[in-house]
Design goal:
Helix content: 25-40%
Distance between the termini: 46 Å
CATH superfamily of the largest domain: FAD/NAD(P)-binding domain
Shape: globular
Number of helices: 9
Number of domains: 2
Order of helices and strands: HHHEEEEHEHEEEEHHEHEH
CATH architecture of the largest domain: 3-Layer(bba) Sandwich
Length: 292
Amino acid sequence: MASLLTDPSDWAAHMAVRTVAELDTGGAAENTSALGVFEQGSTSPNWLVQEGMGRIVESLSPRIGLALNSRVSEIEQLSGGVKLLTSGGDIRAQHCIVTVSTGVLRAEAIRFKPGLENAALAALDALPMGHFNKVVMEFDGPLQGFAPGDWLSAGKQFQPEKALAFLVNPFGSHLVIALAGGAYGQQLSSLPARDAENEVMSQLKDCLGTLGGRKLTASLRTDWSANALFNGGYAYLRTGGGDARKTLASAGTDRIHFAGEATAVDLAQTCGGAYLTGIRTAERIDTMLRNA
């Protein structure tokens, strides 16, 4: 996408490209597929959930037995079914839907028997995990002049290599949440906590000029790349990646199936997109079982 930038002085174009490439997809603008962003389309409406997306996911399957904290190390296709080696013991089933991140798959944290074919490996190479992290700051009161959930960006103060967006006073709280993606998101997450806080506060003050006397009382930051269950925020399509999402979605066997946000075309990179791919895959398996 960076190839779209032809005028170094056009701050609006730089802001648009960096915002889409780094703050949206999580990948560097120099290595993010413009075609992939176009095909992906909008993720709107993308509602905030005060209790967190995890609570929504929990509510979707109240009748399904969930085994949490059960790390899978191997998935083997057998005659008439599959066997999973997990930290909680072996599990056997007729089918298996794999929804782990491409970061986990690329790290080979799960062994597949038989191994993944070349098409699947090529798709994984085209779908690395992007970086999308947050620095959450709590003040002694809400920032004045903003409605709950307003968004703030830098405008002409925008620094292309340090793209940030701010969510202000979400749900009437005293929070300001700074969102950073791509290389800058990774950089912030690797800084000492106080340095990351100072970096973000400096940009916030540049945007506003003054905080209206508000004082910072607490802060925290996220680092999804340090979480071995994800190894990043979500998958982005590299330049030249083509139909990697569709390829990964069809890369399984007649018993092992792939779903998750990396295989989504609609609402890719979102919990909603992951949910839709799971539904479609489950419906396909249901049809197979009915016709068996």
